[in-house]
Amino acid sequence: MKWTTQQMDTYLNSKEYVDTAVIPLIPLDWEKDPKGKVSMGEFTSLVTEELERQFKGRIFQIAPFTYLSGEADEQKLERLLEWDRHFFKNGFKHIVYVTSDGDWKKLENELPDMLIWMPSLSLESMDASYAKEILNQQMKQMLPLITDKWQQEPKERS
Amino acid sequence: MEEKKHKVSRRQFLSYCLMGVGGFMAAGMISPMVRFALDPALEAGGESDFVQVTTLDDLTEEPQRFDFQVEVEDAWYTSDQPRSAWIYREGDEIVALSPTCTHLGCTVNWEGHDDHPNQFYCPCHHGRFEKDGVNIAGTPPTRPLDVYEVEVRDGSVYLGRPMQR
Q: Exposed, middle or buried: residue A81 (CB in 10 Å: 0-12, 13-18, 19+)?
């Protein structure tokens, strides 16, 4: 489900079925390589949208978690953990973070739940149908990660 | 003498020029107005709602997934949105099912679960549907999968809107 009032109504009516929150992690930087950061954000949004389309009825697509690339690791980690605790406490047993920013890969072990990190592809230079084909291929490999996760017990938070 | 009669006077010449230029200007202003006035009438041809998805030759009796794009008007802007359909042949008939689970809208897959061959399977809450899209009792969905309007023109398959059954 998407971050809209209309879909929120659907959610409120069928809360018990929606147990997974997807949070896109999007970096900002207007000093060093702004375009690279935008490209990461764009790719992350594309992937998140597609995940939402596939698993609409069980996933809630949360507003993006944004941060300046310069923000200290501990600080942004602490902030994300707070988001995680908040959503976990309020009904989401599974939380998936989606990003293209490699920084999170380094912090993966500190994260309480599943990180999906996909290096961003510059889709702008490709033919639209080719870009779609590539994204579809990527998604096909990614979907089982989520369905497998659902087979397992939710991760406990300390 | 004869020649002199046919000569155009200065006054006449100028007025012809003015008429010509004025005519062009008027046409330039009026024709876009006429176009805009008629445009909605020309647009509503109905056929534009159908999108070409595949060709007849590509269809089998086994449902296959086809992806396509439709133009969606979403309050503030129009955009191309991805859509999919499960299409198969049933004798002479072509059946195109919407992959949207009627429970909460996840995307269903043909034979998506090893334990349930010949059925559509929804990975979110284990909803299941028969090949013809009818929901299987005891699983969360409460109505059959929607069916697309199908049109065949020159060996190509066009899909319209998904219809609720």
A: middle
